Amino acid sequence: MAIIAITQHLGTRGELLGRTLAARLGYRFMNVQDIIDEASKTYHITPELLVIVDERRPPILTRHPLLIKSARQAGLATCVLIFLATGSLVYLFFSDNFSMAYVVAHSNRDLATFYKIAALWSGQEGSLLFLELPAGGLCFLRPDYLPE
């Protein structure tokens, strides 16, 4: 059984195109409601429940609360680790500790303070770490962004 799927956006007349194409090729045309009804019969669930599962975010009551709590704690732990890694890298730059390859590649003893600060984001690894700082700060300043 061949299936041709046509999406419909505002003004594209997707349903008209689908009906015309189905008639010419001898296929059965199914609109969204037909597909939902067919799937609900196949999976033995009500069409209303199928629409919720298919198109919407699951309701809060159906989410696993321990998993949500674990994700929230992991998010906060990640924020702490981002701050710790950034602080450690800045400390290594200012203490001229060349035991890390990143510090060796992007700093030297003669750099002025401004350039040591800028060395944090001068390489790819430091740039990614630096760009994660606002996300980490957001976790602490607005913890309501994390899932409950």
Written account of the structure:
The chain has 148 residues and is mainly α. It has 2 domains: 14-56, no CATH class; 62-145, no CATH class. The chain has helices spanning 14-25, 32-43, 47-55, 65-94, 101-106, 113-118, 124-141. The longest helix is centred in the middle third of the chain and has 30 residues, at 65-94. The two termini are 44 Å apart.
What's the layout of helices and strands?
Layout lengths: L13 H12 L6 H12 L3 H9 L9 H30 L6 H6 L6 H6 L5 H18 L7
Helix pairs in contact: 4-7
| Shape type | elongated
User: How confident overall, as mean pLDDT?
Assistant: 80
Number of helices: 7
Give the total of beta strands.
0
Order of helices and strands: HHHHHHH
| Total separate domains | 2
Strand content: under 5%
Largest sheet: none
- Radius of gyration, in Å, reads 27 Å
Distance between the termini: 44 Å
Give the proportion of residues in helices.
Answer: 55-70%
Which residues form runs of ≥5 with pLDDT under 50?
A: none
Find the structural class using helix and strand composition: mainly alpha
